[in-house]
Amino acid sequence: MSAESPRASRLEPYLSRTEPAPTLLKMLVGVQLAGIREGAGFAQEQAARALGFSPAKLSRIEAGKGRRPPTESDVRALLELYKADDYEASVLLKLLERAGEPGWWQRYDKRLMPEWFDRLVGLQEAAAAIRTFEIQYVPGLLQTAAYTRAVVERGLPTAPACEVQRRVELRMRRRELLHRADAPQLWAVIDESVLLRVLGSRAVMREQLEYLVEMAGLPHVTVQIVPLDLTNASAPAIPVTYLRFGGLDLPDIVYLEHIKSANFLEDRDETEEYRVALDRLADEALNPRESLALLRDTLEQRYPAP
């Protein structure tokens, strides 16, 4: 058994997951292939050239990008080039097979799931920790169905009712990850203006804030509010989602969403800048207990029960 094999043995628990996690598994396959390549003494460009791959193709494989995992023939060719031992090759090929199983979100129409959004949902499903900052809306994983409907109808005023309903169903399915036994840690920092902006109706907002209070009570959910009277807050100008994964050398990823596209940042220097910015913002925001008090005060004063 080679020196690489203990690392491969850490992958075996992922082979028995009940719910497919194709995004995570593609990333794990890529990271392992990159590690084996480096251990075999190949530069990325050198390995690509030896197999007739373009450098971009091998880069995508090692980054775990794209809707589909790499082909078995490509992975076998790489393993043979690197002279990977039989045990490691066997585990990696089984992992690759599981990576081809569709996640629940991949059963939705591509109109609702463009490739960049498909990747986000897959990353959230695989993350050990999710940090998010929102300046306009309640974070998607903490939204109620009625609030989501109001957000969708505001953003897509001409969408047919059936599409609106599918988008609401998708959002509700996404938030189920916070109720799994292995739920990720969620740390949400929200601008106070989000609590004051009425979407749908005051009844919708009351229900939404009540749900925020409920979710903030979970041990793996932290909610902080950036108050309006905080001057010179170091808040980013756009929403930010920061994803961290459990070990296995996977990089942290920052997700920045635009109107019809998104950027995924994986370079360590770039993601570190956002981590520091989110840390600074969390220090400036109300602490979780103060934030919960503000949520309850806003409920009573702005959205009182009928």
UniProtKB/TrEMBL annotation:
List GO molecular-function terms, semicolon-separated. DNA binding
> Which ranges carry the HTH cro/C1-type domain?
32-89
Signal peptide feature range = none
Question: What Pfam family is a match, any one?
Answer: HTH_31
Coiled-coil annotated residue ranges, if any: none
Q: What protein name is recorded for this chain? A: Helix-turn-helix domain-containing protein
Q: What's the source species for this entry? A: Streptomyces sp. R39
